[in-house]
Amino acid sequence: MAGVGGGNDLQWCFAQVKGAIDEDVAEADIISTVEFNYSGDLLATGDKGGRVVIFQREQESKNHPHSRGEYNVYSTFQSHEPEFDYLKSLEIEEKINKIRWLPQQNAAHSLLSTNDKTIKLWKISERDKKAEGYNLKEEDGRLRDPFRITSLRVPVLQPMDLMVEASPRRIFANAHTYHINSISVNSDHETYLSADDLRINLWHLEITDRSFNIVDIKPANMEELTEVITAAECHPNQCNVFVYSSSKGTIRLCDMRAAALCDRHTKFFEEPEDPSSRSFFSEIISSISDVKFSHSGRYMMTRDYLSVKVWDLNMENRPVETYQVHEYLRSKLCSLYENDCIFDKFECCWNGTDSAIMTGSYNNFFRMFDRNTRRDITLEASRESSKPRGILKPRKVCTGGKRKKDEISVDSLDFNKKILHTAWHPKENVIAVAATNNLYIFQDKIN
Amino acid sequence: MEFKVEAHRIMSISLGKIYNSRIQRGGIKLHKNLLVSLVLRSARQVYLNDYYQSVCLNAQQHWGTHEEVMDSDQPQSASEPAGYTATTPAAPAATAVSEPGLPAENTPPELTIDVESFTESHAAAPTEEEEEAAEADCTDSKEDKSSGSDCRRQRPSELKGDDAAPASSPTAIPMAEHLVPDNQIGPEGEEAKPPQDEGGCGEADAVGGGDGDSVTETQLDNQLGASCSRKRRSSEKAPPPESPVKKTKRALSSTPTGEEEMDTANVSSLITIFGSSFSGLLSKDSTQAEAEAEDSERDSGAAQICCDQILKNLNPWTTAIVAF
Fold first, then answer.
1. pLDDT, tens digit, 9 for 90 and up, residues A391-418
2. Which spans does this entry mark as compositional bias, Polar residues (chain B) (predicted)?
């Protein structure tokens, strides 16, 4: 069986699934972002209802020393609420577009979460002790009458049940006219960038009333608009470098040392279009939906509708690797346009060692590509194939001709079951896959 | 031929998407609508290419059959003569002057309103070329106002279509500047003014062709064959004046499919609703106009307000983008 992600004999098995089993999925429960923190112990998800749920991996138990800990709910909080822009008579959705963890600096954890207009910095802290024995107030909070106090005592910390609190420490608002699509924490751990359709702003984590605009592609005459920014990310090592992708399938790398306003790119990545494959929808499918740097910082990966491309930052004229995710959809573009599926924004991710990449598809399929062996595998996130520690069976889509057993034909694919968001543990072979309202956690088989 | 059908279908779908994006939660998504407009533009180019080719190829045959079609449609169009009297002044004075044009022809209010709704005030690019081309065509059509003009009317659009194809910068729409003051004069539109009509029609061609942004042109092009053929039919009689909105409704319902192989009624309705709806997006006044435009029976007074309101908001789509 083909293995992807670090070894020839790697097999993926089901570990956990979170979320309701109902067929009727409430729109608010649809997961809209998934992100591991830097250590991989915490896994955050955001949904369309504006809620953030954080899972924590429990310590490996002594009873099962070889099995990894399970992810259990650590904290749940409402990050964003629906708002109304009175000036434009527009409702602002509370859907969480992105979550990005901040590097941990003390006992508390911090993350940035954003909806279309506002970014919030949340601090998640634990409290497992409380002080008892105050002089001026009773245990229930009532104030004691000062005249009744005859002696002083020192309050004592007593253990209590663990309580995880999330509090919004910073709110970065009113800086974006258009819909925010990306946030990215800089490697200096002091700044971060936020990108909307036409502009990218640079923030300092401590300062909420100001941000620097570093990219502005809004034309003087909006009728001349031809492309928008679709994703942006800071370089993992060089705090002066960032990239942003466009709806035209191009990526621009900018160096903030060159100018205050990075309208002129330092590098421009574009693959020439194949004229033989032009159609009505060529422009839509070339629009990049996600861009991610490799952990090393040498490569970056872009996801467009049908493929994933790996670029070497030193070569601008074409990607070094291209992987077809679901090429069988190329002949169905018209139908996908009609049902709006062609506008789906798939994300992609690297594994910890940059040897494999993963992205989602339809019918709850997700694909992994091993960059070294050039092997790929299609797996499915479904309840049916989710036996505890059950090995996932590779799936195959039949593109034409005779359908073999266990293959699924293109016309049978369920386009409502799409995997847009996936995340790979930074150090281990553990992946989190969001399938509509369910979060699946898979891990490699431990022999 | 298949490409034309497919292109037309894609254009209808795209317009529907743009319309629906108005009511989606969270506001208009710029990225998605940009992509939809790109598809619309591609489809329009294919549609125009095919349409022009097929029309020119069939021009010879149409000469004979066209008059028959016109005669047979006369009883039908008799009930909606008013469709051709409104907003005649819409025809820009600039091009109207030199047009002998067809007699007693009026730009259908449907076309006019749509044109005004979607015309964009771009920086002037090949404005003069458009006007000249339109004038030349309209002059020719005086001599032969039957099917040949179909081809000729389409020509300026086609020219502009080609020009506009690769360019992302939009071209000038001369009609925009002319239409606003003219259209305020609602009641005057009831008089038949042949030169202006011809100019109007030609101008519509120019507008339809010149705009690099596909939204405007698609509707205009779809409307074009319909409106021009209606104009020719109504030239047979003197149309009594009627309220603009009623004309709009009847014009909509009677979108001819005789000459055109495509059924444009679908697209026409979408366009009209779309145009007035976008007006509503922008201001309270426009909302009133939208409500009025979409109601079925109106008196001329309200209709006049409706026209004025819509006409004031020339570029709902682009203005919406700008406002957004």
1. 999 999 988 777 788 889 999 999 999 9
2. 215-226
